[in-house]
Records
---
Amino acid sequence: MTTDHRDPVPPSAPEGPQAERTPGWWKSAVVYQVYPRSFADSNADGIGDIPGITSKVDYLAALGVEVVWLSPVYRSPQDDNGYDISDYEDIDPTFGSLADLDALIAALHARGMKLVMDLVVNHTSDEHPWFVESRDPASPKRDWYWWRKPRQGFQAGAAGAEPTNWASFFSGSAWQLDEQSGEYYLHLFSRKQPDLNWENPEVRQAVYAMMNRWVDRGVDGFRMDVINFISKQPGLDDVPAVPGRPFAAAGERFANGPRLEEFLQEMNTAVRLDERHLLTVGEMPASTIDLARSITDPAKRGLNMVFTFEHMNVDAQPGGTKWDIAPLHLPALKQNLAAWQEGLAEVGWNSLYWDNHDQPRAVSRFGDDSPEHRVNSAKTLATVQHLHKGTPYVYQGEELGMTNTQFVDISSYLDIESVNHYSDAMSLGLEAETVLSSLAVRSRDNARTPVQWDDTSHAGFTQGIPWLPVNPNYVYLNAVAAQADPDSTFHHFRRLIALRRELPVVVDGRFELLLPDHEQLWVLTRTRGDQVLLVVANCSSLPVTVPAGVLPDVTGARLLLTTHAGAETAELQPWESRIHLIG
Ligand code: NOJ
């Protein structure tokens, strides 16, 4: 890695080849998410970096993914592992340099692959020069953030003086007092992540100019962090209080505001997102199907697709937070995805994901990570995901069937959300054991343990000490072992990805969910002309018999992919799945 992070080459003069982007190319692509901190470390500092990613590009090409989405590598104090950006124009030295990024882009483009950058513009770091300047009430940048006086009748800093009763996603108030001016600023995430004020046109123009510089540099699109929070509901009012709690979740006040689509259209025009066929995916907690349809309607010039959170909430208690865990009821999960399929069938496009850096590992959550069922449940979950209609996202290690980690002590957790939740829960008098058991299931650190490359020390992730401990199961669960085993999850993912290239019905076949109420079977069809793909998946750890006479006849059909070679009987083994091509 170079030490000079400022690249002498001006951003408008990228060196590597540009990717060819045809209209709608992202519909037939599979995206692979890299969380750089945990992917591959090239310089033995224990933290993954860009040269580490470049060294694995051939691995990604072998898997067959076409796009890499890179979680933030910009300059950052790393309060939220890079989602707190202090310089949008530069790379954090932890991860390398602009020259390293150019080399990664060139390596991807040379293999016909593309790079999508994370775009975090709902907020900056409090160390971003814009915010530093904004702290001065007389500064022209004061209005670039949400500054408010204490609540009427309250002294700044007194309990209850926060301008509204909104809770931050990372516990505590969403407002932080700045002693210098006696005013509060809004931060929906950590206090080091102040929210930008998108109502101010200068903010918007600054963001678009920055995006244009990245496109000129060669990037092929953007994954937009909590993009539906950029338009807040006017007024910034209180939400109904939660008994016994000083602050309350306030998504209804700051998500999906009235100017969201206007801002996205303006961005689309200013950055020529559509004209340049850039991939755009908006992370949108609290988005509805109707809103997603409108935002992804090509005629409205918003985004290509959004990340919904609805299916991430099916295993939480209704009305509770993510920490209030409920058992998974399979019909709820499949019916939710089917509703999105139906809602975006004619207009718009879906993104498909189980895993990312904010969610526990899917095989531990929706599958069965016991030694007996881990591989088949990881494969079957992938089959179901990739055979819905939309663009699939694979999160690093998902293709290996990586599992949740096994931290038993709060001191092992590093994620700001987990650490803050624990201390908040302790101050409210909750049992440590209860909180630790929900952290074990839900903490974001589950997804952030280093990628397990081989069975050498630290799983081949680093020559140093990894910033977060490697999952001990790396000794048998690693990329080298998976690539060598033709029956591994890796090769199952590879075959699924190849199927999408071979068969247009995987990309655009009409979706239908069969047996919606069945508690073990997930059955769906995709239809294109005379061709029907039938997916029959046992999403449970018990055998199940397919009810007679209710599924399309598979006599003469081709079995494209299965988890269990051998007899195709009416009984499916635990986590057995089959993809048939009829016609
Ligand atoms: C969503 C990101 O995925 C998450 O990791 C981050 O903490 C928040 N947005 C704040 O940027």
---
Amino acid sequence: MNLPTPRPDLIELVGYHSPQLDVRVRLNTNESPYAPPDEFVDAWLDALRAAPLHRYPDRGAGDLRRALAARLDQPMERVFCANGSNEVLQTLLLAYGGPGRRALVFEPTYPLHTHIARLTGTEVIVGERTSEYRVSPTEAGILIASERPEIVFLCSPNNPTGTVEPRATVEAVLAAILDHGPGLLIIDEAYGEFADWSALELVADDVPLVVTRTYSKVWSLAALRLGFAVGPPALVAEMEKVVLPYHLSAATQIAGREALRFDADMRDRVGMLVSERTRLAHELALLPDLTVLPSGANFVLVRLDGDAHAIWQRLVDQGVLVRDFSRWPRLEGCLRITVGTPEEDDVLLGALRGVLEPSGIEEER
Ligand code: PMP
């Protein structure tokens, strides 16, 4: 074999994999079911036409960061932008993790926290959640005191459980980090706008807290890859040092800035999805052998008493794709359903009824 071997710590690593299938109703990746308004697309393309495409983009993404900061009511120096919140997380781990350093995650949670930590040579420490998938402030405090991790991840609302951590938990974790640090608390709020509170209000120049967010969900712009962090300016300066020059294309920067002018449309979409989440959860809860977990995001996790993988397959056979977590540790029997349009959700509910209700089984035979 003439080919070189990769870094030894990468050999065991499996690439991130989220199965995609060509189906009628796709409720598996927590995207928005609604496209952004046509007026936004026109405004974006007009601005892009006027941009000097033969020049590198603004390295500091000044216009975008200024506009975002104004919308968030934060100083611009606290805002960092990158290609999706995954790149934001990677940048944070490159700057504050790395060989000899450790990151604490509370499982089950977004698998990319562990994956990106490992890619950056950061060791991962695993904390457990309560039976309701919450982070226990007491347990977290004990772990932080004994392990003294450089990074602590909280994901709120948590993917894939939908759990929103209360402010008291975030404050307790922060207090433990301040007592036993130095350490950094990263709160992944990819679904933050769907929840009833945000840790953004706790961000300050001298607090070791950074909140990450994305345009992929509420802004309906998953295809464009834009995410951002809000944290102390000193932290943002370190992230700017680490990230590759000109990493954020002019097309992405302009889209992020123009999207903000359609804030009202975004809020309407969030409102529709939140009320549709309530309806979907209510309808799901009426089904036999199924438990719906409370969610503050644009998806709901359900636990099935039967063979959840077989049920997932039967949904696929009917053209409905949800995310199968049933074989993941701590998520036995669980499927995650992204909130779609009412029409898509009705197709899902009809298919599930057919699978779970005895009369449905008779009909299928
Ligand atoms: N954080 C969480 C919790 C997510 O679920 C996702 C997307 N699935 C991301 C971050 C990454 O989003 P993006 O890179 O598209 O901004």
---
Amino acid sequence: MASNRKIMVLPGDGIGTEIMAANMKIIDWLAKHRSIDFDMQEGLVGGAAYDAHGTPLTDETLADSIASDAVLFGAVGGPAYDDLAFELKPERGLLALRKEMDLFANLRPAIVFPSLVEASTLKPDVVSGLDIMILRELCGGSYFAEPRGIDDLADGTVMHSGILWRQVMTALHAAEGEGVELGHMYADNCAMQLVRNPKQFDVIVTDNLFGDLLSDCAAMLTGSLGMLPSASLGAPDPETGLPKAMYEPVHGSAPDIAGKGIANPLAQFMSFAMLLRYSFDQGAEADLLEAAVDKALQSTRTGDIMTPGCTETGTDGMTAAVLDAMDRLAR
Ligand code: IPM
Ligand code: MG
């Protein structure tokens, strides 16, 4: 019987292809041990699509992505594409997917696993137990705003979007935020507070550009940029109730370590766990995968999160450790 869970797989560039190959082993495990099978289709995006088709996202790949239940994304970009025209750069493929699929809500959970407290560059008591959800607006702001370009504003005004942001959040809070404490912060202060006392935040709701910066900052609290997953969601479909969705690690294509087999696949795995949870309502499997990541981390590490006493390994070794933990936890 054909699966009704359609996943569009877009590995992209750099370490994207390596961590996606690792993710496929998790998917194989679920097929074998949980009889969950997905209808998978793979496509090119970013530099890989440019090399093959002269554009970072073909109309066909976009249409297939829109028609899927979820897009599983790796990473795009690399120095080979630095001199391309703006519209041809690998990142444009990613931004076009976000915009065309109207994935306006980007969820970036920054969670410190107990075993990784020592891997953070911050003091253990500052980060232990940290659990922040960054909610980044993903289809507007400086990334997409019109008119574009460099212009003199006749009246010299700036930052009006910040005022709108406050008004909307305050009204939303009044209407739906009972029991939730709402505060406003400038983004520069928020960046400072994130490294001073990150546990003061439960959720940070922020615009596209600031969300990009603040989520990288929050990622380092968790030990490594290699640990942050994300879900980009649109409005729920009126028939199925499910949102259009794309899942991707926050870290990017890491050209400096691409092809070496040492990339940390965990943010990719946890992005896939978010896919299971948000797109297919498979919370039990998502929990299992996240618990396996936690368990694997207790003894096995990639270089970016290595701490003394653990065994250092590469992408394959880390993946094997997670699969082994899944075996053991599933017993
Ligand atoms: C991210 C990335 C992207 C962004 C780039 C690759 C366009 O940094 O997802 O955080 O700026 O949104
Ligand atoms: Mg970013």
